[in-house]
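User: Fold this; tokens only.

Assistant: Input:
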Amino acid sequence: MKLLRCRCWLLLWMLAPGWLSLPAAQTGRLVEKIEIRHVGPPAVSDDLVRANIHIKIGDPYNPDATTDDIRALKATGYFRDIRVEADRTENGGVKLIYVVQGQPVLSEVRFEGNRKYSNTKLLKMVKSKIGEPLDDYKLFSDAQEIKKLYEKAGYQQTKIEPKQSINEQLGRATVTFDIKEAPKVRIMEVQFVGAQAFSQRKLRKQLKTRRHWMFSWLTGSGKLKEEQK
């Protein structure tokens, strides 16, 4: 009898790890509770969050389904970060906690490293507005517009990088455009190597790119532009 009891305990010990390693949906555990937890000021109501969650109380717990919920919530554009935590309840079920962080509101725009253009001039190029939710795509576009401004003036190698500083508790963000101005590139000479059928002067007339000369400040010539390379 004692030997049989030992064998039973051994069998349970061998099976237990396998049971624990099964996908949650196969263990029969059901979702007993769904909780919404906000990081910082709520971007939307709990009702809107729940409206985009497909898992319902009483459903078998399936991690793949929570991944689908995260995608659905991300697609709304209201959230910067989303994660789902799963806790075991006293009854052996599952409590799901959807932790959501809303997009912070842009509270300030700064510029660092700019000497060629004033803050006022650069701010006119920025489409991201104070008081609106932070938009990474808009910030990228803003950086590109500032870069074009520098390129047009002949500062081809200037680098623009938008850096974000986010206060999660207040739900606010400060964006600093870090500008590394490069020296102005001037075209002093344009030469055609191996050209024999036409003169250098005639070939140069076919180009939009012009050499720098004493009246370049008036004509705008002598600047290296990306579209003219």
